[in-house]
Amino acid sequence: FVIVPCGITASFSKEDEEGLINTCKVIETKLKKAGFRVYGDYRDNYTPGWRFNHWEVKGVPVRLEIGPNDKARSQLTVVLRHTGVKSTIPMENSEIKLREVLDQIHNDLYKKAKQELDSHTVVVKDWAGFLKGLDNSCIMLTPFCGEPACEDLIKKDSARDVVVEEGAPAMGAKGLCIPFDQPEK
């Protein structure tokens, strides 16, 4: 997680600013004690928007924003990187809710990856279907004798004459592995 204090303006009093930063530090300490990796970004020479972007590019999955209104309501604003969804959670027992949020992120990303894999895995039995699967960037489950000479022939025959980059080889298909779950006996 990254904690970013927000809403600090020029009209903000020094005491209010210190109070907001201290609240952020208390939350940071509490989450670290709960076993989370947390970083508080208290740099005042960058805008909150710049810091949001900085941490999103670094791949931090959850951003916690705390502003004056959040502090007054004893809540955290939680922003998920993978969906961009913003929500609020109470500061009290936030570590329990944040653990649930991390589990949900894991489940969402796994579901998306599994769906992508399943939609790009096809069973082919003929050469035309094989080439169509290659064009669609699919993983093809197809009968193969396993001989190196056959694999070389498949690589050669499935290579395209299209030059993607100057000097780059036009690569064909290659055998990856024998799947545990065979499509047929």
Structure explained in plain terms:
The protein has 185 residues and is of the alpha/beta class. The chain has 2 domains: 2-114, Rossmann fold (3-Layer(aba) Sandwich), CATH 3.40.50; 124-184, no CATH class. Helix content is 45%, strand content 15%. The strands form 2 sheets. A 5-stranded mixed beta sheet has the order 2-1-3-4-5, with helices on both faces. Strands 6-7 form a two-stranded parallel ribbon. A hairpin with a 5-residue loop joins strand 4 and strand 5. The radius of gyration is 26 Å and the shape is elongated. The two termini are 48 Å apart. The model has no long low-confidence stretch (mean pLDDT 88). One of its GO terms (cellular component) is cytoplasm. It is an enzyme of class 6 (ligase). Pfam families: HGTP_anticodon (PF03129), ProRS-C_1 (PF09180). Residues 127-185 form the Proline-tRNA ligase class II C-terminal domain. This is proline--tRNA ligase.
List keywords for this structure.
2 domains, 15% strand, alpha/beta, two-stranded parallel ribbon, 5-stranded mixed beta sheet, elongated, 6 helices, Rossmann fold, 45% helix
Residue windows where pLDDT falls under 50 for at least 5 positions: none
The CATH architecture of the largest domain:
3-Layer(aba) Sandwich
Shape: elongated
CATH topology of the largest domain: Rossmann fold
Mean of pLDDT: 88
**Total number of distinct structural domains:** 2
Oligomer type: single chain
How much of the sequence lies in strands comes to 15-25%
Q: CATH homologous superfamily name of the largest domain?
A: Anticodon-binding domain
Tell me the helix content. Answer: 40-55%
Number of strands: 7
What is the helix/strand order? EHEHEHEEHEHEH
Number of helices: 6
Structural class: alpha/beta
The strand order across the widest sheet is 2-1-3-4-5
Keywords: Aminoacyl-tRNA synthetase, ATP-binding, Ligase, Nucleotide-binding, Protein biosynthesis
GO molecular function: ATP binding; proline-tRNA ligase activity
Domain Proline-tRNA ligase class II C-terminal: 127-185
GO cellular component, one term: aminoacyl-tRNA synthetase multienzyme complex
